[in-house]
Design brief:
By secondary structure, the chain is of the alpha/beta class. The protein has 2 domains: 6-63 and 342-445, Aspartate Aminotransferase, domain 1, CATH 3.90.1150; 69-340, Aspartate Aminotransferase, domain 2. The chain is built from 14 helices and 16 strands. The strands form 4 sheets. It has a 7-stranded mixed β-sheet, sandwiched between helices. A 4-stranded mixed β-sheet has the order 1-2-3-15. The radius of gyration is 22 Å and the shape is globular. The N and C termini lie far apart (45 Å). It binds pyridoxal-5'-phosphate (PLP). Residues 114-116, 119, 147-149, 219, 224-225, 253, 255-256, 281 line the site of pyridoxal-5'-phosphate.
Amino acid sequence: MSEKNLTERDLACVWHPCTQMKDHESLPLIEVTRGEGVWLHDTQGKKYLDAVSSWWVNIFGHSHPYIADALSEQAHTLEHVIFAGHTHEPAVRLAERLLALAPAGFGKVFFADNGSAAVEVALKMSFHYWHNKGETRTRFINLSNAYHGETLGALSVGDVALYKETYAPLLLESIVVKGPDNYEREAGETPVEHARRRLQDMRQALEAHADDVCAVIIEPLIQCAGNMRMHDPEYLRGLRALCDEFNVHLIADEIAVGFGRTGSMFACEQADIRPDFMCLSKGLTAGWLPLAVVLTTDDVYDAFYDEYQTLRAFLHSHSYTGNPLACAVANATLDLFEQYDTIRANQKLVERMAQAAAPLAEHPHVADVRQTGMVVAIEMVKNKQTREPYDWKERRGLHVYRHGLEHGALLRPLGNVVYWMPPYVITEEQIDWIAQLSREGIDLATRN
Ligand SMILES: Cc1ncc(COP(=O)(O)O)c(C=O)c1O
């Protein structure tokens, strides 16, 4: 009997995320053996430049030796401990550092273990806050095209039909307000004008529902899973002001955009605002281990602080809350930001990405090339003049994906949007190369 290869063994027993498994009848799995810097290596001796930072997490590339050492040291010291009634230095140090780095005014850090869980925490905490204040508020406001994760609460405040539609009967009914997506600007409208116009929609929603609304949730500056749509910081400033005016919480989901992705450590900095809750994950551990945190204010914390019998406490928990290995890795990640002066060093890469992407705007089937910091997105359309999109069922992006893999780059488009979200250790030459492969892939994808 011939021995099965890894793919055969995989397909016999593994169910992969975000995948129609039938695709693998024709689309080969990449059998990854190791990672190093921007590169992933496979069993066939091929290597791939990870231009999407493996779902936006590996901000310092793969297998960074400094993080490996920190993880190893922690593994030999304390791998895990129940985080109720116990504490440990890596978690405390991480909380202190995050509070020092984040916009001023946060007071406490609550730990979770993935992005969706962090969103659940923020939603529940906001609801419970109002409950503890003697108010029964049951609604949340989210933006059109939002994405906040896959668990039921997080899906409820999402608006990407592909992920949400099937589960709609199970979900909370959120209030969806038209977002400030720059791609939807009217002719001649500036991003700031557009943001202000869309703030009027938010005002109307709050005027109608504020008494019943716990919080507004937003992905600051970039709706990543929603096809990398971007907006002006003006919207965040205006939204903060509206949330204050109508006395509802503001939840900033910085799970994808936090840790330097937008050009600043946190996206909210660009609008000079502090939300009431800030959710962080992904880049927090640079792709090494699952970890998430929710930063909140002392005002929120104080509303829960009482005798046990009052049932005001936040009894939410996950078994791996505050895992020491993940916290040690997160601390090492923050060390790297300091050692490399990452936010400043990235400015050069941001410029190079802009230069490399600019010619793509001329492509006859590209309607928009947009960029915020270390994210570039290229939107392919059927008709450049009218911006008529390609039918998503045609799966044009797959051509780009296949072309990238063939030539050694992991470019995994979102529908008709090709994007670059590379590790911060990418070189300027590698950026040019990704641009070239994207161009070729887009040519192939839009040929007929
Ligand atoms: C903005 C945002 N929020 C939440 C999530 C969910 O995070 P996780 O995949 O870790 O559950 C994601 C994941 O892509 C995200 O982009």
